[in-house]
Specification:
By secondary structure, the chain is mostly helical. The chain is 56% helix and 1% strand. The two termini are 45 Å apart.
Length: 267
């Protein structure tokens, strides 16, 4: 007598990290056909191109045109230390990024979000010299004596520290904003892998291109080939910080999407 086929055991659910809501969040898994294990639907699309594409393009146009029309006005209001348009916008972006990172302090992504929160706090504070220029604070000798710019802060107190940290951030933005989207376009399965939660969205491409563009402008200025903008390093910083803010916005949406899917599956 033939043996009846043995029923397959149901596949064990993947391990999930507990969230603030008390249930567990799944990580994307390409082996499961439905549920949260799929490319994230909450990533911004062309209907939101006004911010992830429009803002980077508008800033580039503003920098080039304003410098071309009036270099003096540009130096006074666009790149001025502490109160220039670019530095104030960078500070505002980091405050928003800090707020997003703080609300995402979940065990699943605790280390990454703490790092993001501390990065936003540090960058935002350093960009405005912790309020020195805004509130016209007097210099404190033992703080500013070691700072080559005579400002509160540490990012330009030690040249090697500033160069290394900036180089790491620039590499991360270019890799995450250009190489990762290209790789995921060639291998779409990565958008539904367990790493998908942390992979930069394709909407980061304009910010990464902005970094590359103004690094080239900076290189041209240093080689005295052509001066297209004053202090292009400030524009580079804008795009670096815009990338961080955009990444945190997408990350927060992905977490919310996973929470919504998990809550729906429990009802």
């Amino acid at each position: 007598m033939a043996k009846s086929p043995r029923a397959k055991k149901p596949r064990a659910a993947p391990k999930r990290a507990r969230t603030k809501a008390g249930y567990r969040l799944p990580l994307p898994d390409p082996k499961l056909p439905a549920g949260s294990y799929r490319p994230f639907a909450s990533d911004p699309g062309w209907n939101e191109a006004w911010w992830w594409l429009g803002i980077p393009v508008a800033i580039a146009i503003f920098v080039f045109v304003s410098y071309r029309l009036s270099p003096d006005w540009y130096n006074l209001w666009v790149t001025r230390e502490g109160i220039g348009v670019l530095e104030l916008v960078q500070f505002i972006m980091m405050v928003i990024g800090l707020a997003i990172a703080v609300q995402l302090l979940l065990p699943l992504v605790l280390l990454m979000t703490i790092l993001a929160a501390m990065t936003c706090l540090y960058i935002g504070g350093e960009e405005v010299s912790w309020g020195q220029h805004i509130f016209y604070l007097e210099e404190i000798g033992h703080v500013t004596d070691v700072n080559k710019s005579g400002e509160f802060g540490i990012h330009n107190a030690y040249e090697s520290f500033e160069k290394v940290s900036r180089a790491i951030l620039q590499f991360a933005v270019i890799a995450g904003g250009l190489l990762v989207p290209i790789w995921c376009a060639l291998a779409p399965r990565w958008r539904a892998s367990r790493f998908a939660l942390f992979l930069p969205s394709a909407i980061m491409v304009p910010a990464a291109l902005g970094v590359v563009l103004f690094k080239l402008v900076e290189l041209l200025a240093k080689t005295k080939t052509v001066q297209l903008a004053g202090r292009p390093s400030e524009a580079v910083e804008f795009y670096l910080y815009f990338f961080i803010l955009a990444y945190l916005i997408v990350f927060e949406r992905r977490i919310s999407e996973m929470e919504t899917d998990e809550a729906g599956s429990r009802n």
